[in-house]
Amino acid sequence: MYIVNTSFMVEPPVHERWYDLFVHKFMPYLREAGFGESADGGQRRILFTRVLTDSGDPHYTYSLQVEVPDTAEYRRFMQDVMGEYSAIAAPLFGEQALHFTSLLKKIDI
């Protein structure tokens, strides 16, 4: 199992519009694309969190973590889901809403 972790850094002037787009458009699209459920109909975890820091930075930081079973699903996530997000968010928010994605391998200990 893998976890796709995408971090978003959003500047205050666009935060409200970005958050509305993310919650009401992007998250439903993510689920419609089949993320959040497994091939057998079971659930895979989607976790959306706000990152809290003591640094005093004026921006908002969020983390989206999505479980995927293999690297093929990771590639599909990047191409389909993040491709769609970037196509919509980049023209609307430009450099005021940045993101980067990491692939994590889940290790059972």
Automatic annotation (TrEMBL):
Q: Which domain of life is it from?
A: Bacteria
What Pfam families does the entry give?
DUF4286
Concerning InterPro entries, the annotation shows: DUF4286
Q: Supply the name of the protein.
A: DUF4286 domain-containing protein
- What species does this protein belong to? Rikenella microfusus
